[in-house]
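Reviewers of the previous submission asked for a worked example of the structure-prediction workflow described in the proposal, so we include one complete record here. The input consisted solely of the amino acid sequence. No template or homolog information was supplied to the procedure at any stage.
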Amino acid sequence: MTEAKVKLITGSLLHDIGKVIYRQGTDRRNHSTAGCDYLKDEVGITDRVVLDCVKYHHAAMLKGATLDDNSLAYIVYLADNIAAFADRRKKAESDEKGFELAVPLQSIFNILNGNHEEFYYQPGDMGDDNGINYPSAEKKKFSEAFYTKIRQRLTDNLKGLQWTEEYINSLMAVMEANLTYIPSSTAKSELADISLYDHVKLTAAIAACIYDYLNEKGLSYKAALFEHEKLFYDEQAFILYSMDVSGIQNFIYTIASKNALKTLRARSFYLEIMMEHIIDLLLEKEELSRANLIYSGGGHCYILLPNTEKTIAHIQDFQQEMKQWFLENYQTELYVATGYAACTANALRNMPDGSYSEIYRKLSMMISKQKQHRYETADILWLNGRKMDDYTRECKVCRNIGHVNAEGVCPTCQKISDLSKNILVDNFFGVVRDGAQQRGLPLPGGHSLIACHDKKDVREKFMSDDTLVRIYGKNALYTGKNIATKLWVGDYNTGDTFEQLAESAEGIKRIAVLRADVDNLGQAIVSGFDGKVSGLSRTATLSRHLSIFFKYFIRDILKHGEYSLSGETKVHQRNAAIIYSGGDDVFIVGAWNEVIELAVDLRNKFKRYTQGTLSLSAGIGMYGASYPIAVIAGETGAMEDRSKNLPGKDAVTLLEDGESHEMMADNEEKSISDGTYQWDCFEDKVVAEKYRTLAAFFDTTEKRGRNFLYKILELIRYQERMMKGEGDKIGFARLVYLLTRLEPTKDGGEKEAYRHFSKCMYQWIQSPEDCRQLKTAINLYAYMNRERGEGTDENNK
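From that input alone, the workflow returned the following structure tokens.
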């Protein structure tokens, strides 16, 4: 990266720092002048180029300035305008004048998918102990004291940085930590749902693209961006680029069951780091910072690039390089498809209407085409012609043929196993050039990955070695040379093995696996906002809020579990482990009852977080601790798909075919039950209404146990067939007779509980939907009150 571009990105990230100073109340000069003087006098920045970018990023200041025609200030000026046009949109039917300096940040979900609420975030920062910042109707204004605190923290953090390429990402981390909940605009007539951090980050991304675009064309900055500003908005100066990794599910889940929990966690984390590394490789090729990364998660990413011949050549070469690396290391198991679309500044703010969604349509078409035609003849010939030293051994973890150690594990799987020990305890993960660390996991571009416990460990391993490329920190604000980014990682864990998690379950000692993701997220990103407010700025903000929820706040949800099947309020740590939690989906394993409860927590808190504008659908499967993980992944994935096929979605599928029958005797007929419910139906009807009615009666009745439940379940199935016209009415009579046998002989609380129970049962067994819900509730109660090993082999599903 050239020195000029470093200064440009730095100036872009700092250009609105004066808004913090202005809103603090001690300096009422315009924020560009206040920011420039603050950086010069308090932070100690003396570079005139950077200071000019801050001072002259408004037209009024530029008009009277004596600047070179190719001053970087002109680029920051236009980049700020493009970013501002994208995020500063008028409130509906608003003609208010002036500014409200203390206004809190509005929620991005206020205007998503037809929502019209006016919710706000509470003033705060991204501190680890702040919990989840839910949007609410309460408009708690910023105080001058709060801005004073932010100013001091910024000063302390910025003084510790050096203004070089190696520290750009640290500067971004400082801005994110402090400015995530501070609004960019305080104009009364405008939406205030874009944070100051999101605005300056997008400004830096746009500025870097403009710089490369103008330099390739040899254009004057002043002429192109200031004197003919409106013309530039229709220049195809930008490229929106996307990568999509295929094969992730098979790579993570097609493993042996021994030490499955650690292995799953490590393989998932390895792929996450690999994706971030691939992104950084491309950004380095383009001499760009991570400000240009719009979104990353779940094996997908979007990056804003300059539309230059050099860029197009780079991304085409990059695709070939990635394909070859994956072929050499993982054959056809993993594949990266890429796509890109040229666009204008106007298109990035959806002008004309529909132009923004058209960008994504082009990207999607290109990626789909690549996935359909992944390999050329030369690739197939290379795969078929490569020679292996050993065709006789199969890795017992990944099942690939090749070299294995004495334990039957290939080198990569062994290194992944070693990584599993570091994920929960280490805070830094270093990327080094090949040859520096023989134990490192392979990464594209001739690099390897190793773990470091703390900053001292980093210094001891790398500071005397020029092989260090970059460092990824985890879940905290880290600054320093070569810190690439802070990774949000859902690293919650309370057990090292499936067996430990199963032992912590109530009732039957089983695990459950939750797979869930957001419904219709792609549609929401592309067209979820009204055309008047749609554009890159809100897409980036929405994506970041979702990533923070699934990668960061999810730890708080599991650490402070609330919902319980019994209805009791008991905040506690869930007995569970996050295998993967990405930009919009999760894979969690834990004690079976805790997984069902945390799934309800997750859905309800996600609903609150997104103000009901987005929904979550899930599949939950229950298994013995040694059940094959590949089968678990496939079955829970299929259950998740069934939830997503339910009209309206926002659903969960659990206790389906093959699960409910296991508590029955071997000679009983296996039922075919549909366990798919809308979340509200599951919570209110299956659990609150039916499960708790069963529990209230059977928990207080010593003489009647699970045998009666099993008979009731059998007769409910009979009754269902009768209602479908497939049987006679004798089943109803038998069920009524069975219920009368449950009646206590003595008056008292037990008899009153029976009256309520029997009344409900008579009502429920006459409705097909109530019968379906009742079967699920009975199964839940039986699991919760079942002894170890009762009725079936504990190792079976």
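The chain has 29 helices and 15 strands. We consider this example representative of the routine output the project will generate in years two and three.
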